[in-house]
Amino acid sequence: MYRTKTCGELRLANVGETVTLAGWVQRSRKMGGMTFVDLRDRYGITQLVFNNEVDANLCEKANHVGREFVIQVKGLVSERSSKNANIPTGEIEIIASELNVLTKSETPPFTIEDNTDGGDDLRMKYRYLDLRRQCVRKNLELRHKMTMEVRRYLDEKGFLEVETPMLIGSTPEGARDFVVPSRMNPGQFYALPQSPQTLKQLLMVSGFDRYFQIVKCFRDEDLRADRQPEFTQIDCEMSFVEQEDVISMFEGMAKHLFKNLRGVEMNEPFLRMTWADAMKYYGSDKPDLRFGMKFVELMDILKGHGFSVFDNAAYIGGICAEGAASYTRKQLDQLTEFVKRPQIGAKGMVYARVEQDGHVKSSVDKFYSQEVLQQMKEAFGAKPGDLILILSGDDAMKTRKQLCELRLEMGNQLGLRDKNTFACLWVVDFPMFEWSEEEDRLMAMHHPFTHPKDEDIPMLDTDPAAVRADAYDMVVNGVEVGGGSIRIHDPKLQAKMFEILGFTPEKAQEQFGFLMNAFKFGAPPHGGLAYGLDRWVSLFAGLDSIRDCIAFPKNNSGRDVMLDAPAPLAQAQLDELNLAIDLKEE
Ligand code: ASP
Fold first, then answer.
1. Most buried among 263, 412, 452, 571, using CB within 10 Å?
2. Which among 62, 2, 11 has a CA at the least distance from the CA of 34?
3. Cα(197) to centroid of ligand 1, in Å?
4. If you write DSSP's letter for every residue of 417-449 in order, what string do you get?
């Protein structure tokens, strides 16, 4: 037997037992005639002691064991004289009687400790070593537990896990596809699924009325902060349901996860907010509701007083940061710089402090009487000691988005975005379409299979941009952790949708014929949702990036630096695939 115990399980109760452990050497140190080795495995760290006076040869051998050597040790579990309260095994140590070096290790490129000296790139290149660190490993453990709990919940509710293919046809609607050349069909390509959307809908036509799949999805997008080209969805679909049924089933799942993985009981129904209100009051379709600072529109109060910036604005709005009137001039200048950064793009920021006597002092005092400033104070319900921050602009939507960034920044600065507080929200009533400047046409905001609200269907012909959808997102702490919709199951309505999206009937048939044909054979009303597994794990683990809960993630340029992928293909392989490379110069 390589080991009788793991490095994480021995306690005072085991004192007196003879055990064999195997693992990696975290570190070793010599103190007088003793050598101490911290032995690590997946389960924890146990201290080994080699005593020169008891067995000089063995101690000498231990002195030659380096970091990350894999060793096997037999010894007696003993109570430690100086205990370490920071680790569960800190009350015991192993007085070693045998040592066997199983494999040697080169000095690792960085220290394998929670506080490592390795930078991001280095850790990604040697990700297998990075994964030895407890702080990284525990994220994968949480991920495992989460998928177990997801399966447990959905199985209990009668969902069937069905696998759908990874090699499918390209559906350019949505993000860009990753494509795979077909050797057997020269010049033809598969696409990797952006999601199993149409396939799960076909499963509904087949009568599998509760489906789920924990599934890899692929999107060839420019990588923004927290995106990976491949990511995992908890993909679900149900038949004979309305929006409320789907929401309640998956709110139930969220509560199940909170309870079983975080020990948080959520008894109240999650908040609901329409998309229109989310945009109006928070400038975002995924507001972080851990804190207030709801936007207040100030057009009526602040326009027409001779301050040209506001007089010419299409939108003036602000937030009130409680107790932040103590912000110094320097801090306010930094906030102004923050909103003026190119990524945010505001032209400037106006601020007003509510002083202890209730008087309002603003950066544009010369244009506004105290009476007007008091009206503004009332509009926010601001109190002495509060700070009001105002942005304006000639495009209301853009300005709200800028104000959203400012609000989040203030939330950070005031410590209102605690990772152990969870604010869950359903955003509902999304618009059916959004205008794409790039494509110069309406695009489906969710996807083309989403059902419009029944009462808005007549507007499809007259004012499609105003049509709302039976679409919903779940947002936790400002992160969109999932979303879905009720689907169209009427082939005629689906055809109309493609028409509005600019598809000719031929093109729609070519790309989505399989789905529309299936709908001719009795499609049940259906709907569903997909949760982002990576995002849920990151949220529960308090991570800043989903990368940290993925075993082998890609970097910001979509590269796997460990595998060195993507990479060119050998000519022979290209020939076999009938492919020629013709790189355009940048
Ligand atoms: N397939 C959708 C997505 O990936 C989710 C859904 O509508 O179920 O966003």
1. 452
2. 62
3. 6
4. --TT---EEEEE--BSEEEETTTTEEEESS-TT
Number of H helices, E strands in the chain: 17, 22
Which helix (H) or strand (E) segment holds residue 278: the answer is: helix 275-282
DSSP assignment, residue 87? S
Distant-in-sequence, close-in-space partners of 157: CB < 8 Å, separation ≥ 6: 210, 249, 252
Are residues 377 and 388 in contact, defined by beta-carbon separation less than 8 angstroms?
Answer: yes
> Which atom of ligand 1 lies nearest, measured to the CA of 487?
7
SS3 127: helix
Rounded-to-integer distance, Cα 59 and Cα 71, Å: 14
Locus of tokens 């509009």: 379
CA atoms within 13 A on the CB side of 322: 8
Is 91 in contact with 83 (CB distance < 8 Å)?
Answer: yes
What DSSP assignment string belongs to 456-503?
A: GTTHHHH-GGG-BBSEEEEEETTEEEEEEEEBP--HHHHHHHHHHTT-
Closest CA to 72 of 45, 42, 103: 103
Backbone region of residue 246 per phi and psi (left: phi > 0; alpha: psi in -120 to 50; beta: other values) = alpha
CA–CA dist 326, 141 (Å, integer): 44
Residues 6+ apart with CB under 8 A from 440: none
What span, in angstroms and rounded, lies between the C-alpha atoms of 5 and 9? 7
Pocket of ligand 1 (CB under 6 A): 195, 197, 483-485, 528-530
Phi, psi of 130 (to 5 degrees): -60, -40
- Compute the half-sphere exposure of residue 115: CA atoms within 13 Å on the CB side of its CA: 0
In this structure, are residues 385 and 323 in contact, taking their beta carbons and an 8 Å threshold? yes
Reduced to 3 states, what is the DSSP secondary structure of residue 74? Answer: strand
Rounded Cα gap, residues 134 and 41, in angstroms: 9
Average pLDDT for runs of 10 along the chain of length 586? 96 98 96 96 97 95 97 98 95 98 97 93 96 96 98 98 96 84 96 96 98 97 81 98 98 98 97 98 98 98 96 98 97 98 96 97 96 97 98 97 98 97 98 90 92 97 96 98 97 93 93 94 98 97 94 93 96 96 86
Mutation test of ligand 1: which of 171, 173, 197, 427 has the most ligand atoms closer than 8 Å to its C-beta? 197
HEC assignment per residue over 498-525 = HHHCCCCHHHHHHHHHHHHHHHCCCCCC
From ligand 1's centre to the CA of 487, what distance in Å? 11
CA nearest ligand 1 atom 1, residue: 197
Element holding 71 (H helix, E strand)? strand 70-79
Q: What is the gyration radius of the CA atoms in the chain, in angstroms?
A: 30
Q: Structure tokens of 346?
A: 């505001």
Question: Which residue type sits at 316?
Answer: I
pLDDT at 499: 93
C-alpha 198 – ligand 1 centre gap (Å): 10
Q: Pick from 235, 286, 428, 487 the residue to mutate for probing ligand 1's pocket: most ligand atoms within 8 Å of its CB.
A: 235
